[in-house]
Amino acid sequence: MSSPLVFGIFQYIGPNGTVGSAWQSPRDESANFTKLAHWTALARKFEDAKLDFLFLADSYGFPALDGELLPASVREGRGIPHGDPMPLISALAAVTEKLGYILTTSTTVEPPAANARRFATLDHFTDGRIGWNIVTGSSGATVAALMGKELIAHDLRYDMADDYLDVNLTLWEGSWEDDALVLDKESAVYADPAKVHMVHHEGPYFRTDGILNLPPSPQRTPLLVQAGASGRGRQFAGRNAEAVFVGGGEPATVARTIAGIRESAVAAGRPADAIKVMVGALFITAPTSEEAWAKHAEMLAMSTDEGAAAIYAGNTGVDLLALDPDKPIAQKSTELGQSNLERYLGADGKPAPLVRDILENFRRTGINGSVFVGAPEEVADQIEEFVAATGADGFLIQPHLVPETYDDLIDLLLPVLRDRGLARHEYEGDTLRERLFGVGCTQLPETHRGYDFRVGRSA
Ligand SMILES: Cc1cc2nc3c(=O)[nH]c(=O)nc-3n(C[C@H](O)[C@H](O)[C@H](O)COP(=O)(O)O)c2cc1C
């Protein structure tokens, strides 16, 4: 029997998923994204289905070009609005016991020590079910402007991210020894002062002198996730990530990306399988193939060129609508997100696609997507083929109609995947890291560089 794949759900705190603007469907409930009950019901649904985690994507950015809003984005609710996932996590943790939560923060926004404290608090409140998607940020230009900063060049952002992570690791691993918390009411000792340490970090970009002002949480360091597939992004992942989200697409391209990530891990002195790679994918299924394709057509009818171009522009800085539709993109690099530019530059000896085809592909698949359509058995076949061709460890499932697309997944597709040994029947382990790496793997492994930041190990 095959081993189960990892299945996480991708959500924005907003009215849309990654393809089109589904909120307008009478069957869609995403416009309730401002209501806590909308999210608690979804989290319970995902846990009942034994899904591994809910990922809440985030960015302070929004689609804009040259300091101007892109009207399609506002009109269609794409990229605008977008709420902050962090305050949601405690409410979701309170109504679930096993579901993991991964959320994004950018290394360009808040000071690293603030990030460390917040994730440590969340690791306590979730009993070790939290993961951090470390991004240098999509829509970097609008984020920088909003924060009153200059846009930092692409590769420098990743250099700074390495240093940012060091501050976080130092605080999580280096401040409290495992047995520093005494909690002895008789002797009135809360914690042992000899076992709580000041940490000092002086890196090229960040420095800190202080403590993590919390006792160790179940995972200490949250599960470290990364999602930028540029060359420098893959290098960062190889050194730091335990899980990587990659965009879908042609299996050969995805296979190369995944192989590149594993090579980066090995180059950083880690085992190739130290990183779990999950591919962004949309599963559109229904009892029959015809019904599934009808749902797919319905989705595309809600996806406009203008909306897709706005998202693309915000992410890459390239305005597809302003380019000659009958030529490839001339621009070969960007200081914003590179993954979605590199995706369309041509590879394996194939010519770069034309702008009109890029726009159509992006309109159909969005920032992350492989799209699998069909009756449940057909989609399960496609999943098996894709995994065999790419070496992916699992999928990050993109939303379409909420909750209908999830109900189809849970009621129709997951039972087929379970029968094939590709989806889990039961949860094992309590923490998010154990969910991905097995029972007992609660904290960073010895092969991760963060392990060496731990204080008092010999004691
Ligand atoms: C599945 C997936 C999820 C992502 N989630 C986020 C996110 O939540 N926030 C964000 O700013 N970027 C997100 N990204 C984009 C990348 O993390 C990255 O910031 C961007 O592509 C720029 O990095 P790059 O130049 O290495 O591509 C995501 C990408 C993928 C494929």
Explain what this protein looks like in three dimensions.
This protein has 15 helices and 15 strands. The longest helix is centred in the middle third of the chain and has 21 residues, at 154-174. The mean pLDDT is 94. It has one domain (6-176, 211-289, 369-452): TIM Barrel. Helix content is 38%, strand content 15%. The strands form four sheets. An eight-stranded parallel β-barrel has the order 1-2-5-6-11-12-13-15, surrounded by eight helices. By secondary structure, the protein is of the alpha/beta class. It has helices at residues 36-48, 71-76, 86-94, 112-125, 140-146, 154-174, 231-240, 251-267, 289-301, 305-316, 339-342, 355-365, 376-390, 404-419, 432-437, and strands at residues 6-11, 53-56, 64-65, 68-69, 100-106, 130-135, 181-184, 189-191, 199-202, 207-210, 223-226, 243-246, 276-285, 370-374, 394-397. Bound molecules: flavin mononucleotide.
Low-confidence stretches: none
The quaternary state of the protein chains shown equals single chain
The CATH class turns out to be: Alpha Beta
Here the CATH topology equals TIM Barrel
What are the salient characteristics of this protein?
single chain; 459 residues; alpha/beta; TIM Barrel; eight-stranded parallel barrel; two-stranded antiparallel ribbon; globular; binds flavin mononucleotide
